[in-house]
Amino acid sequence: MAENEDILVTVRNGVGIVTLNRPKAINSLNAVMVDGLQQALNAWEDDDAITAVLLTGAGERGLCAGGDVVALYHSARGDGSYARKFWWDEYLLNAHIGRFAKPYVALMDGIVMGGGVGVAAHGNVRVVTENTKMGMPEVGIGFIPDVGGTYLLSRAPGALGMHAALTGAPFSGADAIALGFADHFVPQARLADFAEAVVTDGHQDALNSYAEEPPASDLLAQRDWIDTCYAGGTVAEILGDLRGHDDPAAHAAAELIATRSPIALAVTLTAVRRAAHLPTLEEVLHQEFRVSVASMKSHDFVEGIRAQLVDKDRNPQWSPATLDAVDDAAVDAYFASAEPDLTFHEEQS
Predict the structure, then answer these.
(1) How many other β-carbons are positioned within 10 Å of the β-carbon of residue 192?
(2) Which residues are marked as active site?
(3) Neighbours of 70 (CB within 10 A)
(4) Which residue of 136, 285, 304, 330 lies most exposed, with the fewest beta carbons within 10 A?
(5) pTM of the predicted model, to two decimals?
(6) Residue 194: which residues within 8 A CB-CB, separation 6 or more?
């Protein structure tokens, strides 16, 4: 495929190498990058000359900070057509990565948030470092974890995924392995050599040479209070249990959750719990598409991005303003048909 400045695609020694190339934006995904990666996977999937895919990001700050949400903000303030198509194409890509049969090696160094998780954590060879800073921070902008994130969050041990979803807080590479978002740990100082070894020796030899035992996971060590506090039926009950617990980390989680969009929190709780009962990534992405399209029409999606990334006053005015004001019907409406709903027919992939 033709290269462009936002995504670089090359082949070396039978390895298809994709570099997300917007380093000033920490490689935030736009439509060109989603389309470029999808085209590359389509071309390589049935090409016997291609033995593996290697995904990396340009610059020193991270693989990918997420989707280009400012573009989604402007679309939401207009007719919404760009946002809808972006999510449609992005989720088809996430599903394609999830079923890609060849080794798909994702180098998840530095910041890997939101959409970055979607293009990396559904791969089958997921590598983190001591500098990995991963997360699904959507509730902070009035949005709900997407890109198959609720599939992964719902399958994390105990309530660790719910803790990550409702706080939106970043977690380490070691935590990512513990949560099921990653597989292998390679020290950052050896990551470039590891990537070169993937190309020259194959991914398995590269892992044998460079992968190490990950550090202990801080989140895994906190499962006792996390599992206890996130068992509540509603976000309000969870907040009460967090505030009533004697662990200072529980109080810190409560304070963070209390700053998030109330409607986004309530929908996220429901979305993750529903995702746990959906057997495939495709079925979860189908649900997420409905939720994302509904989110785009909400007050909090536009307001959250405005406060965080447009005006940058960090002072969102959520509506409803409190959890008590969020009713069940408002939450249920996020899961209604997006008309048309996302489908996974071959001709659309």
Answers:
(1) 12
(2) 67, 115, 138, 146
(3) 15
(4) 330
(5) 0.96
(6) 107, 127, 186, 206, 209, 210, 211
